[in-house]
Amino acid sequence: MCLAVPGRIIEIDGTTARIDFGGVTREANLTLVPDAAVDDYVLIHAGFAIQRLDEQEAQETLKLFRELAQALEDEKRP
């Protein structure tokens, strides 16, 4: 199973970008989305940006991830 996570580009240096995942930042390669720019949302998989997203789509996906995390946390509680 593969999972791609949306994040916002906060800095670009050549083909490498610094991506913000809601406070956690990581580097990703932009080779597959050469038209991406600072403040764009992109899907990241295995260290590569694979697709640009509009902000609304990215926020909806992030909301679903938060809801899933909360449901899993609730499931652990007795």
Characterization of this structure:
Helices cover 28% and strands 38% of the residues. With 78 residues, it is of the alpha+beta class. The chain has one domain: SH3 type barrels, CATH 2.30.30. A five-stranded antiparallel β-sheet has the order 3-2-1-4-5, with helices on one face. A hairpin with a 2-residue loop joins strand 4 (41-45) and strand 5. The longest helix is centred in the C-terminal third of the chain and has 22 residues, at 55-76. The N and C termini lie far apart (29 Å).
Give the structure's gist in a few sentences.
With 78 residues, this protein is α+β, with helices and mostly antiparallel strands. It is built from one helix and five strands.
- Percent helix, as a range, is 25-40%
Distinct helical segment count:
1
Described by the principal axes of the CA atoms, the overall outline is: elongated
Give me the side-by-side strand order of the main sheet: 3-2-1-4-5
Q: Provide the succession of SSEs.
A: EEEEEH
Could you list the spans in which at least 5 consecutive residues all have pLDDT below 50? Answer: none
- Structural class by secondary-structure content: alpha+beta
CATH architecture: Roll
Strand share of the residues?
35-45%
Radius of gyration: 14 Å
Biggest sheet, in brief? Answer: 5 strands, antiparallel
CATH level 3 topology? SH3 type barrels
- Mean pLDDT across residues: 94
